[in-house]
Amino acid sequence: MIFPIVLYGDPVLKKKAKEVAHGDESVVEFVENMFETMEAAQGVGLASPQVGQSLRIFIVDSTPMEENEEDGLRQAFINPVMLDEDGEPWSFEEGCLSIPGIREDVERKPMIRLKYFDEQWVEHEKEFDGLQARIIQHEYDHIEGILFTDYISSFKKRLLKGKLAKISKGETDAEYRVKIPR
């Protein structure tokens, strides 16, 4: 099932998401639906608040951004905990399915260490770097109620104010199903 993507301005995007009950078997189908939704929208990551569910779940598929497909990461992250972020921050242009048509440079640290469960409730603790770390940090921010626009300067935010207001009213040319904020 393809979910509509929640647009900028919806309060669910600014709330810290709740933990999923350990062992909840419904996450398997939910994660499958999230992957289907992300692929339909041609994204590389999707967090549950972006489909209207305030749960600590996000998915990543870095394959489209990798030089070699075998290097790609396709993974669900349930109840993740950021253990460490390390290295000299680097800037990269980010976008978001909930904020269609807007892309801005965001600085993030290049290496992270994360503890999480997969959709089968197997616990992992793993380090990620480069683009994979960046995608994970972006999606992790979503479950913390943080958007990439929160990192840009107040000057740039003022420049984007009109575009963001239009998105919050559903005025977008997104080529995927969207849910207009209440």
Structural description of this entry:
This protein has 3 helices and 9 strands. With 182 residues, the protein is α+β, with helices and mostly antiparallel strands. It has one domain (5-172): Peptide deformylase (Peptide Deformylase). The strands form 3 sheets. Strands 2-3-4-7-8 form a 5-stranded antiparallel beta sheet, sandwiched between helices. A two-stranded parallel ribbon has the order 1-9. The longest helix has 15 residues, at 154-168. The chain is globular. 35% of the residues are buried. The mean pLDDT is 95.
Please mark out the parts with pLDDT under 50 across 5 or more consecutive residues, or reply none: none
**Overall pLDDT:** 95
Number of helical regions: 3
CATH architecture: Alpha-Beta Complex
What does the largest sheet look like?
5 strands, antiparallel
| Major sheet: arrangement of strands | 2-3-4-7-8
Give the CATH topology.
Peptide Deformylase
The percent range for strand residues is: 25-35%
Classify the oligomer: single chain
* CATH class term: Alpha Beta
Helix content: 10-25%
Summarize the structure.
The protein has 182 residues and is α+β, with helices and mostly antiparallel strands.
Task: Lay out the secondary structure.
Blueprint: E1 5-6, H1 27-40, E2 45-47, E3 57-61, E4 74-86, E5 90-94, E6 104-108, E7 111-117, E8 123-129, H2 130-143, H3 154-168, E9 178-179
Task: Please tag this protein with its features.
two-stranded parallel ribbon; 3 helices
